Amino acid sequence: MGQLLDLQEARRRLGLALEVLSHDRWVVGLLRGGVLQPVAASEISRRLLQARPLQPLSRRALFEQRPVVVNSVFPYTTPAAGFDWELDWPAIMYAPIGQPEERPIGLLVLGCRRDYWYSEEDVQYAIGLSAALAPIISSLRGPLGRMSGAEAEVVQLMSCGMSREEIARAIKAGQVETDALMSSVKRKLNQRTPHRIPVCVW
What we know:
CATH class: Alpha Beta
Distance between the termini: 29 Å
CATH superfamily: GAF domain
Structural class: alpha+beta
């Protein structure tokens, strides 16, 4: 179950490192089949832990292999139905995770709900942070890449130390289904595939 410890460590390190940048929310995830599969987030929220399609600007950041920043001149207002923080918050940064000159393996999404302008200094810090995160994301990519969306949610909750009952409530599932998901997660975390070649598609 070493990968659970890796996940806890990734969340802890990222939370500390991001204290330098202004933000109200962050998500870091793996790239898998054109979607972002969250690995860690600033909040334990099912909405944030679920895989989601990449936004156009996140695809641009991955293609150009550099952070893309959105700074809106419009003030943040009370969200209406269909609210999406990546689209509606006034300040968002997408930072590809990976080694310089190599294809990104993950993505960091950072956002402010208040009026804020990410500076060039912020961007340079994000570039360095993303490179530092690459080994952690790479180590998690194999085991998490074998999991379904529901299993990926469960492993996040397990890494936070939640009990079976708490996980069942969080994913709105019965005890039998929760037990099956937790058993599957543990089995996949214990699998070893040293010769597996990771493929990144976006």
